[in-house]
Structure formats: structure tokens, C-alpha cells
Design a protein that fits this description.
globular, binds adenosine-5'-diphosphate, 4 strands, 7 helices, 140 residues, alpha+beta
Length: 140
């Protein structure tokens, strides 16, 4: 399988509860390498631009406010099949449906406050990485 890069966000519910290290440990144990990382505080407008594909969904306003409520940690994860592997480590959107040992099973509070974001396709990963990082910040 090819080496890929994917965009991860540790969301405000997790940074608030000091869970960044525990979540990164799960990525690393799964063979994903953190090749770029920064802690930022999004504005609601920036969160809205990032989640533009969800703008017609009922939870969009709530999602933007949540993502701007506290700092987030945005990271690029690299590894074999990194996009699908990260989705496996994350678990299902709704923590009640997430498999044992996943980030969302262990840490998420609800379907909205679900601790992590991960790109869902190669196209999304390319767009999402470019949204947060310049080429100079990706050091491999
Ligand atoms: P995923 O993050 O698992 O790819 P989606 O792309 O469907 O899930 O949704 C993006 C994000 O929007 C979710 O991670 C979650 O934070 C939020 N969200 C999704 N569905 C709901 C919902 N029914 N109520 C509140 N927030 C939601």
C-alpha cells in the first residue's frame, strides 16, 4: 500500500480535557507518523470555510461554533494507507457506534464533540492539508 498523508484535527473537547498526548499515542501506535503539527484557535469563519461541504446540514452552525470554542491541534499524519488507517483509529462519528480502542470510543463526548477529525479521501486530504499548512511546514 502507498505511503499517504492525511489531515487530523484534535478537536476542542479533547484539547480542553488535556487529551492531546493520549490521542497522538494512538496514532503513533497504529504506525502513523506526525510530520506536521500546530496548536491554533480557529475563528468561526475559518471553521466555516474548512467545513463548507457541510453548510447545508442542520448541525453546521453548532459545528463551526464548537470548532472555534477552544484551541485545536492540527496535524499531518503520514504512513501506509494513512487516510483509511486514521479513520480506523478515530472510530465512527457517533461514539456510541465506535469500536473498542478507537479514539472516539475512549474519549468522545457526543456525535458533535467527538474529539478528532480525519480526512475521508485522497482529494479531501490534499485540500485539507493545504488549508492549514504550507509546503515548507511539511518536513516528513
Ligand atoms: P466524520 O467526522 O466522522 O467524517 P461527518 O463528516 O459526517 O463525520 O461530520 C463532520 C463532523 O460534524 C463530525 O465529526 C461531528 O463533529 C459533526 N457532526 C456530524 N453529525 C452531527 C450531528 N448529527 N450533530 C452534531 N454534530 C454532528
Amino acid at each position: 500500500m502507498a505511503i499517504e498523508r492525511t489531515l487530523s484535527i484534535i478537536k476542542p473537547d479533547a484539547t480542553r480535557r488535556n487529551l492531546t498526548g493520549k490521542i497522538v499515542a494512538k496514532f503513533e501506535e497504529a504506525g502513523l507518523r506526525v510530520v506536521a503539527s500546530k496548536r491554533i484557535h480557529l475563528t468561526a469563519a475559518q471553521a466555516g470555510a474548512f467545513y463548507a461541504e457541510h453548510s447545508e446540514r442542520g448541525f453546521y452552525g453548532e459545528l463551526c461554533d464548537f470548532m472555534a470554542s477552544e484551541p485545536v491541534v492540527v496535524q499531518v499524519l503520514e504512513g501506509e494507507g494513512a487516510i483509511a488507517k486514521n479513520r480506523e483509529v478515530m472510530g465512527a462519528t457517533d461514539p456510541a457506534q465506535a469500536a473498542d480502542g478507537t479514539v472516539r470510543k475512549d474519549f468522545a463526548l457526543s456525535k458533535g464533540e467527538n474529539s478528532v477529525h480525519g480526512s475521508d479521501s485522497a482529494e479531501s486530504a490534499a485540500r485539507e492539508i493545504a488549508f492549514y499548512f504550507s509546503g515548507l511546514e511539511l518536513v516528513g
